[in-house]
Structure formats: C-alpha cells, structure tokens
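By convention, each integer encodes one residue's backbone shape. The lines below illustrate.
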Amino acid sequence: MSVKEQPANGAPSLETDSARKTRLAQIHKLPPLRLDPTRMADWQIAEGAEQQMKTVYQLAEEMGVEQMELLPYGHHVAKLDYMRILDRLRDAPNGKYIDVTAITPTPLGEGKSTTTIGLIQGLGKLGKRVGGAIRQPSSGPTFNIKGSAAGGGLSQCIPLSEFSLGLTGDIDAINNAHNLAMVALTSRLQHEFNYTDEVLAKRKLKRLNIDPRKLAINWTIDYCAQALREVIIGIGGKSDGFMIRTGFQITVSSELMAILAVARGLADLRNRISKMVVAYDKWGNAITTADLEVDGAMTALMCRAVNPNLMQTIEGQPVLVHAGPFANIAFGQSSIIADLLGMKLADYHITESGFGADIGFEKFWNLKCRYSGLTPNCVVVVATIRALKMHGGGPKVTPGTPLARVYTESNPALVEKGVDNLLAHIETVRKSRVVPVVCINHFHTDSDDEVNVVRRAAEASGARVAVSKHWEKGGDGAIELAEAVIEACQEEPAFRLLYEDDTPVKDKISRIATEVYGANGVSYSQESEAKLKEIAADDELKGFGICMVKTHLSLSHDPALKGRPRGWTLPVRDVLIYRGAGVIVPVAGDIKLMPGTASDPAFRKVDVDVDTGRVRGLF
C-alpha cells in the first residue's frame, strides 16, 4: 500500500500497488516539457515545469518518509517532522555529504544554488538516491537586484512563487520573534524610567537598569531598507515610549536565523534563545531574553520553523529548504537539522554555503561542522569564466546594465590573470583536508580555450574539474560534475578544523584573516579592542567560534580589491557577541547589516495574472 494525495478536505489515504503503478504510468506518458532557458525567463520555465511536478505525498513516498512524518502546506510544499524521522532512522547509515561553495562572485553571483540543484539532478540522472538542502531566500534580494535563490534555467527549485514569497513562514517567525524581544526591551526601558522600585515590584518586574546607550540588537524587517538603518523612536509624550536611537537590520541577519541554523532540535532552540543578549546594564552586564521573560514566547513563535521545508527540483528530486542567506553578514548556511535529515534519507546529500569559500565554506567548515559533528566528503567550488575575467582586470560588473563585450568574447589571457582567485579558494578547501571539485558553471559564450585555462590551473592545484551545463540542459548537463563528485567521495577525508575551541579569540580571527583571506594581519578599533578584552575575561565566550562579517565581493574587506589581494591588513571595527548561537562576530570594513534597494529593483517586474492568480516576473 502507498500514500496518495486526496483533494481539499482530507489526509492522504492508501491506494493499492496496482493503482499506484497505473497512476505513475499515466504520469510517465505525459509529453516531455518544452523548456528553453535561452528563450524563456526563469519564472516561465518554473511555471511550465510546475504543470508536471510531483505532489509532496509522492516525494515523501519516494524518499521513505512516512505519512505521519509529513506536514503538508498544500499539495506541493510540506514540512518534515524531523524528530519522528530522526528517531525512526537513528541507526540508518549516513549518506555522502557534499558542500557547494564558490569563488569570489561578481555582483550577479556565481550560480551556487543553480549548481546545487543541477548536481542533485545530475546524480539523479545517474540513478543515485539523492537530495539536497538550500537556504530560504530573503525578500530583500528577491525584490531588489539579485532576485530569488531558486536556481535558474533548467536547474530550479519549484514551485517558484511559494519558494520566493515567504514559503511556510520561517522568516516571518524569526522577524516576529526578534521584534517581540525589542518590544519587551523597549517597554521595560519605559517602565523602569517611569516607575519606582515599589511600583515595579507590585507589577512583578525586577529593575534591570538597562543602559539605553548599550542596546545589543535592532529591529528587523526582511527588505533592503536603507532608510531604516538608523532611527529615533519614542518621540512623543510619557506614554509613547522611551526615546532612544536605534535602527533596523535585515531579518535574515538576526541572531535568531543563526540559532535556527545551528539548533539540533526544539529544546536546543529554546535554550539558545534564552541566552540571546538584547542589551547591557549600566555596569556592562549582559541582559538576555530570559531576563526579560520573553524567551518562551519567542520560542513559541518559532517552534514550527524548526521543521525543514520539503520542495523539489524541476526533475523531481527532493530539496529541503531551511535557514537563510547572507554569509557576508550572517551564518549563511542551510540548517544542521536539514543536513541531518538529508543524510539519513539519501545516499548523496548536497548542502549549500553562501558566497565564496572565504566566508561561506569557512563558516561551514569551522562553525557548522564543529556544531553538527558532520564531516564533508567533498566540496564543490563553483566558478564562472565571467567572474575570472573580472578578477583578471575586466571592466566593472554592474547589475542592471549590459555586460561589457569582453565578458562574452573569448579572452583566455584575461581568464589566466584572474584564475589566482580560484586557486585561493581551492587552497582554503584543501586546508580542511576535504577533496575539492571545481565546477565550471558553463555559459554558452564560454570558449574551449577559456575553459582549458581554468581546467589546467585547477588540476595543477590538486583539484578535480568538471564542466557543467546544468542551466541549459538540467541533469543531463551535470553528468560530468556528478561523476566527478562520486569519484571524489570515494576518498576518505582527513577533515580538520582551522582552530580549536580553546584557541584564543584573537588567534582565531588572525587565522581566518591570514590563512583564508590572505591578509598580512589584523588591526582593531578601540571599540573592538575593548570588547575583545571583555570576551577574554569571560570563560564561556572563550570556546565560541568566529562568524566573520565582511564583504563577499573580495577576499579582502574592500569590495574594490579583486583577484587575490596581497599586502593588506584586515580592519575589525566592531565585535558582536551572539551567546545564543555560540559565536563571536567580528565586523570588518564598511559593511552594513541592512542592505539598500537599488534604483531598478526586481519588484518592478513582479505582478499577478488576475485570471489565474499565478505570479509572474520572479527570477
């Protein structure tokens, strides 16, 4: 017997094996989709593919997920009850674990999500039991320049509208929980200012002596809203709140997103939320959400978000969507829970890290693997000829403007000049003692001579190399990449971390700066030096990992420095402490936790077909 979708009102019912075979045979007789990425926008391809996508019940059946472990949100999206599944499969072996990262990207990106989906599809074409985990897109880039993060061409995660427009509400839950902490903090400030100790005691409130100049968090909103970076609130009378200077950060940069990514379960999530620091008192002592007695309510808002979301590739392989983007200002990884599930449910599990290996893979390596205890079998480093030309000295790449001709015409010499950036990222992966596979994410304008330049340089550095045309051809175009990954996974990795838990914090930062970024050293502002002294005196913080905040557009802190910069110093201007997530967050260079919206944002192209209700224009 097997699970079958029921319309509208009911839970799935059981069908006979013969009925299932008849149903699947009818699906297989459907005419092949006519999808051409060279002539169709991503949303048009997704819309076409969605006509034949599997229901979540079919996906669950094929994955080995039982009926009661599936939490449907409609017919094509569901959450998975991670506790039930992991408990049932506790003794099952883990599948191979593959991370996808990239070189330093152009502002247009390198196609990590597209490559992640393409690799899943390529392994599927080879008959492998495969799945993956990607991050939920933020509304900021979705409606700004970069667009959604569903992949592209014939390697996408679908249904696209649901994926791009809030999914099952995880980011909304983070936004609401984070802002509830701010509501608790600002209201307590007002009451402590207005009332005596006696009045507070009658209301069962303890005076926390919050220093309004030392708030540790801001408000959140999941848009690129530069006008909200700095604001003054509490303007008005005594009943209108305490007047303070504050601001907004984009929701996915909240510590709560990092907590969701590293939590091992609901109990761990609850414990970590209670440790989240929201402010400091007048003597410099931390004030947490537990001190405000808001941690329980915050967990209540986020308890459903702990379950990963189930979606699918265009070719019908399962994809888990969980946690968020922005490895330059946040954790930037798919969640540990999603990876634990994926490795039990597949023989090959592909996970995604944000931006280049200097920040995305580095955090996967030294934070995610440290907290999960999982060891990767292989790391895919995505590179494009376009980006290597930029790093070789090509003209500036600006979103929304046509690419210079040099990026679409053969120029092996320019690629040769830029390949040093790729080699830096390969070296970073090799320092973890994990096998690197370079994926040349192929564009139709790339010449064989240009590809051969990259292949020779990468192979000389000890990496495997594969050319992949998944954007244009889907899984069929990713066969070479899939075969290279299978071969790499045969090697036994001698995985090691860059630093130990008890390494001094300054030494941890220095190792990342010098051994990963290529800096000569690190300089600190007076403010960051003062915070590091406090950290050094706190035994709990000594074992925390480092979650660096820096630009993704350069190996350095300066986005204008392309290629492989040498002879520079990393300037750390501030240090944040995320006690709940268990990380120290150095802030390097001039980078904001709230991006800005450009003059030609993506929301100008998004609309709805009022006759069908289908969303158009997402990319």
